[in-house]
Amino acid sequence: xxxxxxxxxxxxxxxxxxxxxxxxxxxxxxxxxxxxxxxxxxxxxxxxxxxxxxxxxxxxxxxxxxxxxxxxxxxxxxxxxxxxxxxxxxxxxxxxxxxxxxxxxxxxxxxxxxxxxxxxxxxxxxxxxxxxxxxxxxxxxxxxxxxxxxxxxxxxxxxxxxxxxxxxxxxxxxxxxxxxxxxxxxxxxxxxxxxxxxxxxxxxxxxxxxxxxxxxxxxxxxxxxxxxxxxxxxxxxxxxxxxxxxxxxxxxxxxxxxxxxxxxxxxxxxxxxxxxxxxxxxx
Length: 283
Description:
With about 280 residues, the protein is of the alpha/beta class. The chain has one domain (about 50-280): Rossmann fold, CATH 3.40.50. The protein contains nine helices and eleven strands. The strands form two sheets. Strands 6-5-4-7-8-11-10 form a seven-stranded mixed beta sheet, sandwiched between helices. Strands 1-2-3-9 form a four-stranded antiparallel beta sheet. Helix 2 runs parallel beside helix 4 and helix 3 crosses helix 9. The longest helix has 15 residues, at about 55-65.
């Protein structure tokens, strides 16, 4: 019999075994997570996967492809969802920080707006001066928006709640963040191999309910992204909480819309943002 869910304290049901580690499906919040005793040991410092050179030798190419592909799309649509001007954007748990290089390529007129932070960067990483090594809480200033791409699934619930607290401390009302992470419906229907404790370090698949329980105490409202079972939004102290997300793309903040129309590169990211937001909704 497993311990109760560390997110909501409901009973856990056996889900599968991966590399000798049992994963459980929570009967309450619906998250899928590795055995609670293992989560507790990770919180105590006994990690299943260290993010060393061997990890990055496998992951660096995937990070590069995301930075010049899907992560760029997530950034573009986020700019259309944001209800405040995005003058400081942060890539959280940025890995090699290559999204900064991608944004500098496609939005060269706005490069001073973009930042990235990573606790355990690979030896090969961006040389952008806005790339910071260390925890988010140590960066000076606040942010209007950010992304966290393929990182939440590496964190225990204790770590995820601490991250939410750190992001809240760096946010203003209406600051908004997009998290790209495989949620339980994605794992069940599309990619069971997403659960991967030893190679990729994926230990939890968080449901929207699970995320709400961890983030809402820190002032966030969690928004579902229609059609996307691998992404959600966290908006800090929103002043318009009932504003439908998908409708926002048709009336974006004027400054954000202008940023996506770069004087040199044109409107390519504005077009990408519109199409990325609509791609899975059928609209």
